Here is the input.
Amino acid sequence: MALKKPNEVLGRRNAPHEQTIAMHNLKDQIGRLKDLKGQFESFTTSIDDSLTEVVDLEFLAIKDDLDGFNNKIDSINEDLSDKVNRLKKTLVNLNTDFTIVEKRLNSLKLVEGGKIEQLKREVLTGIQESYLNNVAGNIKRLEEKVDTIGNSHKQVLKEEFLNDPPSTKNRDPLTPFNQNFSNLEDFQQHYRLFISRIQRQISTLGGGGAVLITDLDDVDNATAKTEGSYLRYDSSIGKWKGSTAAGETNQNAFSVITVSGQDTIQADSKTDVLNVVGGTNVTVTTTAASDTLTISSTDTQLSTEAVQDIVGGMFTGNTETNIAATYQDSDGTIDLVVTPAEAVVDTDSWTASQGTAQVIQSYAIGAYHCVEYTIHVTYGAKLQTQKLLVMDNGSAVHHNQYAVMYTDEKLLDFSAAINSGNIEVRATPPTGVNGATITVRTIKQVI
Here is the structure.
């Protein structure tokens, strides 16, 4: 059978160019398949790499945690082993001490076949009988029994320590001391038994010595039992005495000494010494018996300069009236300058009323021996000036006007009178001086 052509198989009759197009299309599809395959392979590789990276990171983290946990377990095992070893050594030492204590206690109970307790009973019985029968004989027998008890105790006290602890198994469950334990429960049971025995033995032991410091023979209770006291040894009586002195014997004799404008003196150590030195014309004397330091001057005379400075200080800075005082230190003199004060003028004004007196001055009777007034009067354009003398003897007053001057007419008459224990100076306008303001100015001088 003859072979058919492709177009015959496909049932088509294509022209040659159609066949070429079909081949190109087939190639394109094959190329796209190859691209898809490449993309799939790339995607698969990327997923594999990502999974590998994630798995590696998780594995490393878990591995670090496991390593840390293993290290902690190893550290705990080492620490536990070390503590167990130390506990075993401590157990061996305590077992040794327990054996020694137990043997000594047994020796105290069994020495001389228990004759100690019997001797004690005999001693007590002998004491009771000594008051009833032969006193001398009973006392002698008591002394012999007491000596026997003392010798028995001395024999026990001279006992040496055990040479070696038991190292083989015997009826004591604590032996041997170097035994090993198969589990923790056996070890705990062994340890509890050991602690129980130690506690029983310790409870039978007693202490000795004074409990209170006041029970000691070398303490002076009369001074020691004082509030705030501490003990200090007194070699003169050979005892410790109470002392209230603050600080130790070798404390700082001084701390800091300051003087204004001078260097500060400060103790540098507990044994530092303060030196007191006398200056010019000053002596320093110490008296050990009375613990006295005396500072005295060898020159009791003041110098001229010292006197000038003292007197000058009395003038300088004081309050002076109508005089200035200045101390000149250069030549030791005092300068006095009088500064006269201005006269004090007293002014009175009122409406003149002819024949009516006006009081212009007043002072207590007997206050002065004599008073002089200088008077000036103004009445409009008219003027008057004059003097007035006033004196009193305590019961009567006298006055006199003089040196009277005026421009047009006399404006006022001046007089003095006593009123209620006071001297009053009065001014009276004459006829014609009336209805207008009149002013009087006065200056007073007294003796």
